[in-house]
């Protein structure tokens, strides 16, 4: 499902970029393919929820956000700092904080289920 979600997002962003430079037809085709990826992600999500439950699915994503994404952003932010890119470091640190916020919402959501 994550691979489908990534492909969906990349296709949607490419479509936006194509639209911005006036390539409307290509943007339309990319959006159609993005919708296919979203359909795949939804089908897999529904299968996961059916097998594991909504609470476990939300909790699993919370763990990914909290344990994996926060540290990944922090590692890359420290690398940016070492390489003398304070602007990139600042951006990545703020992304890490936002990932924590996403994890918190997911944990609260999972508890509410
Ligand atoms: Fe994340």
Which labels suit this protein?
Ferritin-like diiron domain-containing protein; 113 residues; single chain; Ferritin-like; mainly alpha; Ferritin-like_diiron; 4 helices; 2 domains; binds fe (ii) ion; Ferritin-like_SF
Give an account of the 3D structure.
This protein has 113 residues and is an all-alpha fold. 92% of the residues lie in helices and 0% in strands. The protein has 2 domains: 1-52; 53-113. The chain has helices spanning 2-20, 24-52, 54-82, 86-112. Helix 2 (24-52) packs across helix 3. The protein binds fe (ii) ion. Fe (ii) ion (FE2) binds at residues 65, 69, 99, 102. Residues 1-113 form the Ferritin-like diiron domain. InterPro entries: Ferritin-like, Ferritin-like_diiron, Ferritin-like_SF.
Order of helices and strands: HHHH
The overall number of domains is: 2
* Number of helices, counting only DSSP H or I runs of 4 residues or more: 4
Structural category: mainly alpha
Brief overview, please?
InterPro entries: Ferritin-like, Ferritin-like_diiron, Ferritin-like_SF. 92% of the residues lie in helices and 0% in strands. With 113 residues, the chain is an all-alpha fold.
